[in-house]
């Protein structure tokens, strides 16, 4: 199944737009209960207005909340971003730290967020257990756990550490494009022959093909048609 994911999504990547570790950290915090597309609509103005950790620490709450309002839960997220800025200034000279232990001590940062930042900004392999990742690896029988830390540990034991970051991207890509929560496109899935949950969604190719999303759609359908 992992080899099929490699072929299906060779260019999988973080779909949040960023240019610095701080921008990535902020974007991941904003992505909680929000789509990456919506976050990417908000962050250009946000990043321009708050280019440094000190800017978030000293932000006007009303202004910050208004800028991030479209991402939802904007009051809690504003609190996290202002606390994050202050913590980075106080503890790390305004810079984003590059270790898991230091990242998870920051306001609004859990293991999922930390692993995204480590993998993308510091090239440190990590497994990102977001909603899609956890849902798919349970559906595939790779783990039976609902606890994100246990999922991270159990999946990490199955694959070489160097592959963790790209594995995370590819599983998440598959969850967004094919293996949907309520109606997976089973009949148009390149992993179908090895999936223990085949049949959870429509198995007819023509029906399932209509459910496949994303820029990779034609590539994915061609893989299935060839097989």
TrEMBL record:
| Substrates-to-products reaction catalysed | 2'-deoxyribonucleotide-(2'-deoxyribose 5'-phosphate)-2'-deoxyribonucleotide-DNA = a 3'-end 2'-deoxyribonucleotide-(2,3-dehydro-2,3-deoxyribose 5'-phosphate)-DNA + a 5'-end 5'-phospho-2'-deoxyribonucleoside-DNA + H(+)
Q: Where is the HhH-GPD domain?
A: 30-177
Record keywords: Membrane included? no
Primary enzyme class: lyase
**Keyword DNA repair found:** yes
Give the protein's cofactors.
Answer: [4Fe-4S] cluster
Question: According to the record, how does the cofactor bind?
Answer: Binds 1 [4Fe-4S] cluster.
Xref: SUPFAM superfamilies: DNA-glycosylase
Q: A Pfam family for this UniProt protein?
A: EndIII_4Fe-2S
Annotated InterPro entries? DNA_glycosylase (IPR011257), Endonuclease-III-like_CS2 (IPR004036), Endonuclease3_FeS-loop_motif (IPR003651), Endouclease-III_FeS-bd_BS (IPR004035), HhH-GPD_domain (IPR003265), HhH_base_excis_C (IPR023170), HhH_motif (IPR000445), Nth (IPR005759)
Instruction: Tell me its EC number(s), please.
Output: 4.2.99.18
Which Gene Ontology terms cover its molecular function?
A: 4 iron, 4 sulfur cluster binding; class I DNA-(apurinic or apyrimidinic site) endonuclease activity; DNA binding; DNA N-glycosylase activity; metal ion binding
Q: What's the domain of life for this entry?
A: Bacteria
Q: Name one GO biological process term.
A: base-excision repair, AP site formation
Listed binding positions for [4Fe-4S] cluster are 179, 186, 189, 195
The UniProt keywords, alphabetically, are:
4Fe-4S, DNA damage, DNA repair, DNA-binding, Endonuclease, Glycosidase, Hydrolase, Iron, Iron-sulfur, Lyase, Metal-binding, Nuclease
Checking HAMAP family in the record gives: Nth
Give the record's family classification: Belongs to the Nth/MutY family.
Listed name of the protein = Endonuclease III
């Amino acid at each position: 199944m992992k080899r099929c994911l490699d072929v299906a999504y060779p260019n999988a990547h973080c779909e949040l737009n960023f240019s610095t570790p701080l921008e990535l950290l902020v974007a991941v915090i904003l992505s909680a209960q929000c789509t990456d597309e919506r976050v990417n609509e908000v962050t250009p103005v946000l990043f321009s207005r708050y280019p440094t950790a000190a800017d978030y620490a000293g932000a006007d709450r009303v202004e910050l909340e208004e800028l991030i309002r479209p991402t939802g839960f904007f009051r809690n997220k504003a609190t996290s971003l202002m606390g994050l800025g202050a913590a980075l200034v106080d503890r790390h000279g305004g810079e984003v730290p590059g270790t898991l232990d230091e990242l998870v001590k920051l306001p609004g940062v859990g293991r999922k967020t930390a692993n995204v930042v480590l993998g993308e900004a510091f090239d440190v392999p990590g497994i990102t257990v977001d909603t899609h990742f956890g849902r798919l690896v349970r559906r595939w029988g790779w783990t039976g756990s609902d606890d994100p830390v246990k999922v991270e540990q159990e999946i990490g034991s199955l694959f070489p550490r160097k592959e963790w970051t790209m594995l995370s991207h590819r599983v998440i890509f598959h969850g967004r494009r094919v293996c949907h929560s309520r109606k997976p496109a089973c009949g148009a899935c390149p992993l179908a022959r090895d999936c223990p949950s085949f049949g959870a969604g429509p198995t007819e190719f023509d029906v399932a093909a209509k459910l496949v999303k994303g820029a990779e759609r034609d590539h994915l359908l061609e893989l299935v048609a060839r097989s």
